[in-house]
Design a protein that fits this description.
single chain; about 180 residues; 434 Repressor (Amino-terminal Domain)
Amino acid sequence: MTEAKTLRDKTIGENLARIRGELSQQALADAMRDRGYEWTQATVWAIEKGRRPMRLAEAEALAALLTVDITDLLQLPNWIQFESSISALVKAETDVLDAAARFEDHLLEVAHYADLLIAEGELPDDVERELVRMGTVRFEETVVDVVRRRVNLRGFGSPSGKYMRRYLSRNDEESDGERQTEA
């Protein structure tokens, strides 16, 4: 059995045990048998220990029986979600750095051709002003604004956690410092 499959079956079993609460394994097995599944107390025990995988039809019937969403049975423990989030963050950081490099490359390319056009007297003043404005884009501020907006949209709510507060307050201080420097 692969490690991922074992972890998935164990996670489903742990979630079932938690969701089942005070309902006995025997009572759950009886209720599943009433729905046409050949479950015994030993079946419930094996699923909860991660030793027996659950079929999709069983999971659907079980979720209906326990009045939960089927995704509640699949919910990964917080530490796994934490590790997954770190991996996603590392990938996103790489993507942002790559995007920043592409942004800078394109900005340099625009500046190069603008200089050629200015030397030839072919670039109007209003376009030159726009190029100057584009050259002062604050990439960091743009990223922080996107993060703030997405934190609110993704339902994290108010930043009550220690690390979320630290991240957002650090960026507030950096933005305030940059604004004071610019003034």
